[in-house]
Amino acid sequence: MTQDDVTPQDPAAADETPLGTDGQPLADRGANRSQLGRTQNFVEYVTSGWGPRTSAPVERAAVADFTAARRSALSAHFPGARLVVPAGTFKVRSNDTDYRFRPHAAFVHLTGLGMEQEPDAVLVLHPVEDGTGDDGSAHTAVLYMSPMAGRDTPEFFSDARYGEFWVGARPTLEDVATSTGIRTAHLDDLRDALAKDVGTGGVELLVVREADPTVEAVVEEIRATEEAGERDDRLAEALSELRLVKDAYEVEQMREAVTTTIDGFAKVVRALPAALAHRRGERVVEGTFLGHARQEGNYVGYETIAAAGEHATTLHWTDNDGAVRPGQLLLLDAGVEVDSLYTADVTRTLPVDGTFTEVQRRVYQAVLDAADAGFAAAVPGARFRDVHEAAMQVIAARLEEWGLLPVSAAEALLPQNQHHRRWMVHGTSHHLGIDVHDCAQARAQMYLDGVLEPGMVFTIEPGLYFKADDLLVPEEYRGIGVRIEDDVLVTADGNENLSAALPRDPDAVEAWMASLRG
Ligand code: GLY
Ligand code: MN
Ligand code: MN
């Protein structure tokens, strides 16, 4: 199905427009497949005769109470600056077909809009005198967007990206104002609104970069100063740091994402016989989880890693085009992203036959012990990096016990050595939320060196990966990759493993798999 190019602005003229001539610009060639009528009669007919809309009235979303507080917190960092937070636009996947639209995380966080909402929209925090803005802050928020076009417009029937005939009815300005609690305005008003009082008027204009090139270009044209880039970085940093501690709404969304993810893992275990029977069993695993994520949430939060046997030693194995064979371990790293766009990020390494071999269990138990050490360190007042360090103590100790280290565990753990990291080159934890690697632009003092606070959500995901051609380990270890990844919420007196309902102890994993497979 492709978009027919009607020339609707001037239907009468369109009637006579020659198509497919030698002089036709390449940019217009897409219209050469058009079979839609181009006559004025057609346009008049297709835009008339439609009944009243019957959709249910839009209500204020529960998240709206939380987003107001988030915007106020941001406002406090940037008095006098106009802050521009684009949702982003469509990205071309192939010729004239786009990837599914997903708004920028900062936009989601500040507006509460989620699934498919709202391409090309731009949230702007306009500076006002301190205390006179929204909720007594120094800014008032306006959401600029392209509302649903009337049925009497060409967009209605001929625009494959935005038209109601093609993508369904889009919201009106009033709908979005009601659901978000944010004042809305037409996108056509954006440019003037951004330019007001910038420069000589004393207003500084800052934009979230790499979200929407069109908006970024408009901002750059308006301000045309050298220092602006640096201040944009401050905005990106503040937006990331604003998400380090989740509010009650976000924690609830994370719980939903994790619960739905756990259900997906159970579906995968039930699908293992089908995976074993297929030449690309890893795709059966991936497809099973993806189907579940689409049915129960918005999508997967990141490309699923479905890695059987040796593939598990490739950290981001997303080709998933291998077989799943008896006797192997299957490393499944997958997360459902719920409709609000919060995602889980969970890994389990499962014995395909339902039972670990002795050496698989030995490696698995070492990784589990490392994860448990990480959990013990993940308490308020500790530093984020302490979680990793606790896990590494265990990994180094086990490798020493097995005779794999060329030095003692204590020596390996010295910053200048790190021999143990040969078998776990990735970090143990990352913040989690709307982005799977959330808060990525936070400063080191707030992230790695940051102090843990109640409300933080991050992963604990140690692993051990022995490649098939690793000559430094005995043969029995070669080709084994194990990762165990859970999602942890820091609480007032410790932490809660949000993914605890998915078995992690090896006996519990075997019992759970047996119960699912009957
Ligand atoms: N799934 C990617 C990660 O664990 O960070
Ligand atoms: Mn992770
Ligand atoms: Mn993961």
TrEMBL record:
Region span, Disordered: 1-35
Enzyme Commission designation: 3.4.11.9
SUPFAM superfamilies per the UniProt record, alphabetical: Creatinase/aminopeptidase, Creatinase/prolidase N-terminal domain
GO cellular component: cytosol
Catalysis: reaction(s): Release of any N-terminal amino acid, including proline, that is linked to proline, even from a dipeptide or tripeptide
Keywords, alphabetical: Aminopeptidase, Hydrolase, Manganese, Metal-binding, Protease
GO MF entry, a single one: manganese ion binding
Pfam families associated with the record: AMP_N, Peptidase_M24
Requisite cofactors: Mn(2+)
Residue ranges annotated for the Aminopeptidase P N-terminal domain, each copy included: 62-216
Coiled-coil regions listed: none
SMART domains: AMP_N (SM01011)
GO aspect biological process, one term: proteolysis
InterPro entries: Aminopep_P_N (IPR007865), Creatin/AminoP/Spt16_N (IPR029149), Creatinase/aminopeptidase-like (IPR036005), Pept_M24 (IPR000994), Peptidase_M24B_aminopep-P_CS (IPR001131), X-Pro_dipept-like (IPR052433)
Family that this chain belongs to: Belongs to the peptidase M24B family.
PANTHER family attached to this UniProt entry: XAA-PRO AMINOPEPTIDASE 3 (PTHR43226)
Protein name: Xaa-Pro aminopeptidase
